[in-house]
Design brief:
Oligomer: single chain
Strand order of the largest sheet: 2-1-5-4-3
Helix content: 55-70%
Distance between the termini: 92 Å
Strand content: 15-25%
Number of helices: 19
Number of strands: 14
Length: 608
Amino acid sequence: MGKFFATRSEPPRALGRDRTIENDALGDRRSPKIIRVAWLTLGIASVALALISALVLRSERESTAILHHLNVIALNLQDVLSDLADARGAEREYLLTGRASSLENFERSRKALGLEFDRLAALVKNNPAERQEVERVRRLVQQDLDELQKSIASRTGGPQAAFAEILTDRARKLTEAIRQSITGIEEKHESTFARLSRERRVRLTSALASVSGALLLAASYLLIGQIIIARSTSRRQRTEEALRASEKRFETLCEQAPVGIYSTDAHGLCDYTNPRWSQMSGLSAGESQGHGWTKALHPDDRETVFERWKTNALQGGSIDFEYRLLTPRGEIRWIRDLGGPIYSDRGEVTGYVGTTEDITEPRRAHRALEDREALNRAVLNSLPANIAVLKGDGTIQAINEEWRRFAEANGDPPARVVNTGVDYLEVCKRASFRGSSDAEKALTGIQDVLTGKLQSFGMQYPCHSATEERWFHMLVTPLAGVTTGGAVVAHSDITERKRAHDAVQEALDQLQLITDNMSAGVTRCSRDLRYLWVNPEYAAWLGLAPHEIAGLPIRDVIGEESFEGIRPHIEKVLSGAREEYESQVTFLGIGTRWIHGVYAPTREDDNN
């Protein structure tokens, strides 16, 4: 495992260049030579044609037609190779960049190939042997295009799949088969050229008189040949420029990628890292070579991560795990590592390529979300009321422990009916169908809060068990800060308060009964000297009904003179003392009477 690696500042060339493109370039360099030889041979034959007599002219015209036919086929085959190279270039560009324009270039090249083969089929339709050869080449090219289409479709697997497609020479065999077929066709053409040349040499002895005219014709053919050669050269140059641009794009992609990118050899020793890795780890590309990258690992993770990495490297498996980095500044960063092996044509692992993504912030956000949810649950569980949180559609989103315990202790409805995920509105509907008016009232109130008709809704209702009578108060409020809507439903046990209220009300009713039947006048007044309540006897003294006196000032009811007479006694009782006196008071209903008055102070909850 101990090897020396030179520092590499650029991505491995195999990652940005396919060997099939290099083979295409070599084929393009050979093609102009073949075309040049063919056109030189045609020039010589043209000189011979100029010297043949009228009888030979017919055969020469036939030979010219054959030569033209073969050269057109050769040119079309070269166009096929060129369009196929363009399709490969577009496919690699799409795998690296994902641009829609690359797919458009691929489809354009594919359509051009279809047109080329249609022209070839028209040219060889009368020659069974040539037609069979052209059909064979067409099938091979179609297979190659299908492989390219599969490679384009594999990009949905993510960057890992794209790298794997780039780094495997998947179409090499098809390419070689296509070239062999075209070479075989060209060899047959060369054989035909040789045969025609021999025939021309035989006729050359009788065509010397036409040399001067044939030279001009030969020059014309040579000019055409040069034009064709220039065209082929231009295509080769465009292919090489596209290749250089593709490599440059890949290099730029690695340099500007928002994730760390690395590659290793077959032994798992790192031989390339991009700048993003250096930013995350604090290690330079040179320091990360070999096993140097492990220096950036957190000490607590170093041994575990390194052993997992070695195991995957030896087994040729894919990589997907998380670990911590400790930067030179002492900062801990969480990293997710994704990678996979690179295979040779023989299926052997030649290295690994992968990405490292900084997931520190997402992990912190996830932890903060978990803490917030835990806090929310703790707050809900600390409240003494039975609380449920409803979604906008009435589904129970969350409940507290009090709600759960009450549901489990009271089996009607069963606890599972009022648990999370249950439609609480439907539960209320079923209860109202069974004749519960309280359930119907609760259903209406909850719906009004959910739809925004009410800001809140509250109601009291009985909920008796087999052993005791109980009363509850339900309060429904909107779920604030949630765009999808919702509500909080709280049920509070008010049994003790209800019993106390009923006891007070019973005492008041008894007191009312006693005072209503007393022959003495009884009143209750407020601190601002207004009547709160009077009994019928007192109201009769004034010639009024009790409800006509309640709420009026004492001064206005009994008159200024009578009020001033009892005022000193009122002031004493307001100071907190009990006051008892006798005085002569004039009443509107019964006239002037001597009364024995007893004033006693009363206190409210605020001691006033």
